[in-house]
């Protein structure tokens, strides 16, 4: 990257400079030589000019003193330590493994400290300069800057169909918009959430070109008007950089961002270079979980593969705070960076990759990130010229994670009482699902767990609770403006009223969940159905053994007993599918979602397709038993309950694609 003159050495021009001598003398601009305006002698005019210089300089000095007196005192290491040490020490005391905190301003590192251990087996301490962490989705900021470098060169166009760049067609559904770089960088391309091959135990990732071509998900919001945060979309943007630049993505970022900023212990390379591998912290996922025994290899590298020390992330923050420049090295023209830091839509929270939120009384811009083991946050308080980066290794047993950025924001700009805002409209009450979701494959069942029940509170605010368990305190969202609500952590949601109200915020849109998939009734119904199906299946051999011990034959005709066998085989298939998916979820390891899982997934699909019609068969048997009065009343009631359970389970399998076909999820 080119080196440029530091900003403080560049001449700034103003019309006032004509009066204080920075521009050529006035006679050079059309005045008769030797005379000035109003026929004032040259000697007297020069005296007047010197007087104005001294006068303006005195005013400037007074203003500077006044600004200094009114500004908040400079933030020092002791101030940050007083705020941060208690927060992070408590987190370590509650079982957290290790963490790093970096606080910088435009000119220096204010605070850099590691907490806990990077490796418990060897007692290797966590440090700011010699411990690598995985910042996760904060990697997307580097991807966005890389793309904007090429936009600034004229090599890329923000509004051109990216199919022209990547070498394969990205379908545009009827009535939709082609995918553009702008849509990718603002998470409005409309891709459904993608999981497969995102994390891997392999030492080397699948090539980015192969991953984006293989993993192309459907566009469930193709009009470009719905925010739906997408790892795939950002990986695709990184692949555009790779194709157009002719360099691999890790090499491009290294040459054009990391090296110019002297981020010497930061890389997108997987596996880590030999010089950096010993510095990587172990991934301690949380209490009761063993550490990861592998390096988290991420195929969608532009979306989250960065590894870096806290000190390196500090240099990155300083470059952003300085308008894209650090120590004479510029990674992006200030105007382009400002474009990234500007909200893409009025009242929105997204710029080009950067995310805006309010912390305390301060406006922050940055990004969060998470892998399977590391949880990170990068926030820039541009008005104060301060940046904070925090990365935690795993969880503790605290109910809420430590929020260093929030504490720092309150120190920089104490929160003021919000102005009175109109109370929430009662029409906002209901159950919502996020736009960041899978919709066409079996992972769509996860959307049930993420549904939110929104209640309108008597004080005019909103309260968000999990729809599948709508009890407890939930999250209070207070009104802070016209149809704008703010919750814990500074996240804001903008409500849009209409035929179908929705809320925008948190990198996605909260949209009304149809009654047919409302988790409030569907999850309890499914749980009760699975429990009854299991009871019925276990009771079947028990009843047979009981009759054999009592030497009593079944009073059902052989044909009816065969129907019952068919029903229970369908129930068995249902329960095997549920058990398989529950086991997969309990493993809590995203690296299992790869091609090696395909045979098991095909078997799950086959069993689900066998079990799903079982409810219909059970209903036929129950109706037939009541019509012909087969068996006793309890037998017929049992068959009716079993039919209802089978129908609910089959409904879930079909609606959420557990009875599916695709291996791209």
TrEMBL record:
This is Beta-lactamase-related domain-containing protein. Residues 83-394 form the Beta-lactamase-related domain. The chain crosses the membrane at residues 521-542, 563-582, 602-625, 637-659. Coiled coil: none annotated. Keywords: Membrane, Transmembrane, Transmembrane helix. It comes from the Bacteria. Pfam families: Beta-lactamase.
């Amino acid at each position: 990257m080119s080196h440029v003159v530091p900003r403080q050495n560049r001449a700034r021009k103003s019309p006032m400079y004509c009066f204080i001598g920075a521009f050529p003398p006035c006679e050079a601009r059309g005045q008769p030589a030797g005379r000035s305006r109003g026929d004032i002698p040259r000697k007297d005019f020069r005296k007047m000019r010197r007087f104005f210089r001294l006068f303006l300089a005195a005013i400037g000095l007074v203003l500077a003193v006044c600004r200094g007196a009114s500004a908040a005192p400079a933030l020092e290491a002791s101030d940050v330590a007083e705020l941060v040490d208690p927060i992070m020490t408590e987190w370590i005391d509650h079982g957290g493994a290790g963490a790093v905190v970096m606080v910088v301003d435009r000119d220096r590192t204010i605070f850099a400290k590691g907490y806990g251990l990077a490796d418990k087996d060897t007692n290797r301490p966590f440090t700011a300069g010699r411990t690598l962490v995985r910042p996760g989705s904060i990697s997307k900021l580097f991807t966005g800057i890389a793309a904007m470098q090429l936009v600034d060169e004229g090599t890329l166009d923000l509004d051109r169909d990216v199919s022209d760049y990547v070498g394969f067609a990205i379908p545009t559904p009827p009535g939709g918009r082609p995918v553009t770089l702008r849509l990718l960088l603002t998470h409005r391309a409309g891709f459904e959430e993608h999981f497969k091959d995102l994390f891997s135990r392999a030492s080397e990732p699948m090539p980015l070109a192969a991953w984006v071509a293989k993993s192309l998900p459907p566009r469930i919001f193709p009009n470009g008007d719905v925010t739906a945060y997408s790892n795939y979309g950002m990986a695709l943007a990184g692949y555009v950089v790779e194709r157009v630049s002719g360099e691999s993505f890790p090499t491009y970022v290294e040459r054009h961002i990391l090296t110019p900023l002297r981020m010497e212990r930061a890389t997108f390379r997987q596996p880590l270079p030999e010089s950096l591998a010993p510095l990587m912290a172990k991934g301690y996922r949380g209490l009761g979980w063993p550490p990861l025994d592998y390096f988290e290899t991420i195929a969608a590298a532009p979306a989250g593969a960065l590894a870096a020390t806290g000190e390196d992330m500090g240099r990155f923050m300083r470059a952003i705070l300085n308008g894209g420049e650090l120590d004479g090295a510029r990674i992006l023209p200030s105007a382009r960076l400002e474009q990234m830091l500007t909200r893409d839509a009025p009242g929105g929270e997204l710029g080009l990759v950067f995310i805006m939120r309010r912390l305390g009384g301060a406006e922050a811009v940055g990004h969060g990130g998470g892998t399977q083991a590391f949880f990170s946050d990068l926030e820039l308080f541009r008005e104060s010229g301060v940046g904070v980066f925090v990365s935690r290794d795993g969880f503790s047993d605290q109910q809420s994670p430590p929020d260093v950025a929030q504490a720092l924001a309150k120190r920089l700009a104490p929160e003021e009482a919000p102005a009175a805002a109109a109370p929430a409209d009662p029409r906002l009450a209901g159950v919502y699902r996020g736009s960041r979701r899978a919709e066409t494959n079996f992972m769509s069942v996860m959307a049930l767990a993420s549904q939110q029940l929104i209640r309108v509170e008597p004080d005019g605010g909103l309260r968000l609770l999990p729809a599948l368990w709508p009890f407890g305190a939930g999250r209070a969202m207070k009104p802070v403006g016209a149809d704008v609500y703010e919750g814990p952590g500074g996240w804001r949601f903008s409500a849009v009223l209409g035929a179908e109200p929705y809320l925008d915020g948190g990198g996605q849109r909260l949209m009304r969940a149809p009654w047919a998939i409302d988790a409030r009734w569907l999850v309890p119904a499914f749980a009760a159905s699975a429990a009854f199906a299991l009871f019925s299946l276990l009771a079947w051999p028990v009843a047979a053994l009981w009759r054999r011990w009592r030497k009593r034959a079944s009073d059902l005709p052989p044909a009816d007993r065969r129907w019952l066998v068919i029903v229970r085989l369908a129930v068995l298939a249902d329960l095997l599918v549920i058990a398989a998916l529950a086991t997969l979820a309990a493993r809590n390891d995203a690296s299992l979602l790869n091609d090696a899982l395909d045979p098991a997934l095909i078997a799950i699909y086959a069993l689900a397709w066998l079990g799903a019609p079982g409810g219909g068969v059970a209903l036929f048997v129950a109706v037939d038993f009541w019509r012909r009065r087969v068996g006793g009343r309890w037998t017929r009631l049992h068959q009716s309950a079993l039919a209802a359970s089978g129908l609910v389970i089959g409904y879930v399998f079909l609606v959420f694609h557990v009875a599916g076909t695709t291996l791209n999820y």
